[in-house]
Design a protein that fits this description.
Distance between the termini: 50 Å
Strand content: 15-25%
EC number: 2.7.7.65
Organism: Shewanella violacea (strain JCM 10179 / CIP 106290 / LMG 19151 / DSS12)
CATH superfamily of the largest domain: Reverse transcriptase/Diguanylate cyclase domain
Catalytic activity: 2 GTP = 3',3'-c-di-GMP + 2 diphosphate
CATH architecture of the largest domain: 2-Layer Sandwich
Order of helices and strands: EHEHEHEHEHHEHHEEHEHEE
Low-confidence stretches: 298-306
Radius of gyration: 23 Å
GO molecular function, one term: diguanylate cyclase activity
Pfam families: GGDEF (PF00990), Response_reg (PF00072)
CATH topology of the largest domain: Alpha-Beta Plaits
């Protein structure tokens, strides 16, 4: 049985909320927000909405501003928005659609129109999610792929530029992986990759991006995360991988860690420093974490004696 879709209803008038809820409560899971700020909060908490029905005229923060902020946030930009409003001129509708809304329902609310429009957008959302999932995930490990990582990193860098939060990256390279493939076969190597992927995606926050970068390399992009916290996470993952021993095979990994610096404008710059730190970890004996302090120096964190 398919899980019910979740719809977030946003209106500062309780009567309108009740009317919308009456139309939808039997077919969907509902979340309620009475103002724009609450909408922004609920949109990022489980169960995550599959669709937002958003009033335009609200005090403090109107629906247009809420829509802008939702579309700017990488975590919420793919949630479809239907404006539900008494503003029904062509200019109002055009403005709302240009902001990123997928549809526009005029008040007074007509139940048949609401249910039909919502049903259409929920079907489109599910189809879009399925296609996006296939296009942006690695087939073997089910982690995000390189394409999604680069796309997501660009959005996160833009968000960091506006809001000034920390952004760090972990680069992970499995030690002597070619030896595993040569000795046990590629089918065993694939099982090792999947086992490590399961460790990497356990315990991550929704805003973190865990991706298979290629071959035996993985990248974890950590939003709101300082270099110190990223190093601690890397060390925890390193220890878990060392203890894993899938199919009785000893496996370790080398980690490079870097935090975005103020002058860095691209993900390539950040990732290059993490990559250099991985090479340093390899040179120092593998199975360890090395953090890049800046573009010129790496800090060896000798938390593991090999």
């Amino acid at each position: 049985m398919a899980e019910q879709a979740t719809i977030l209803l946003v209106d500062d008038t309780r009567t309108n909320i009740q009317l919308l809820a009456g139309c939808l409560k039997h077919d969907y899971r509902l979340k309620i927000a009475m103002n724009g700020q609450r909408c922004l909060e609920l949109a990022q908490h489980s169960p995550y909405p599959d669709l937002i029905l958003l009033d335009v005229i609200m005090p403090e923060m109107d629906g247009y501003e809420v829509c802008r902020q939702l579309k700017e946030n990488p975590n919420t930009k793919h949630i479809p928005i239907i404006f539900v409003t008494g503003r029904d001129s062509d200019e109002d509708e055009e403005f709302g659609l240009k902001l990123g809304a997928v549809d526009y329902i005029a008040k007074p609310i007509r139940p048949a129109i609401v249910t039909a429009r919502v049903s259409t957008q929920i079907k489109l959302k599910h189809q879009s999610d399925q296609l996006r999932n296939m296009a942006l995930h690695d087939q073997l490990t089910k982690l995000y792929n390189r394409h999604f990582l680069i796309e997501s990193a660009a959005s996160k860098l833009a968000y960091v530029d506006r809001h000034g939060n920390d952004l760090s990256v972990l680069m992970i390279d499995i030690d002597f992986f070619k030896h595993i493939n040569d000795q046990f076969g590629h089918h065993v190597g694939d099982r090792v990759l999947k086992a490590i992927a399961d460790i990497l995606k356990t315990g991550n926050r929704r805003e973190d991006v865990v991706a298979r970068f290629g071959g035996e390399e993985f990248v974890v992009l950590l939003e709101h995360c300082s270099l110190k916290s990223a190093v601690e996470k890397a060390e925890s993952l390193r220890a878990q991988i060392e203890a894993l021993e899938p199919m009785g095979i000893a496996v370790t990994a080398s980690f490079g860690v870097a935090q975005l610096m103020k002058h860095e404008q691209t993900f390539v710059e950040l990732l290059s420093r993490a990559d250099a730190a991985v090479y340093q970890a390899k040179d120092l004996g593998r199975n360890r974490v090395v953090a890049a302090e800046d573009e010129y120096n790496v800090l060896h964190l000798d938390k593991k004696t090999v």
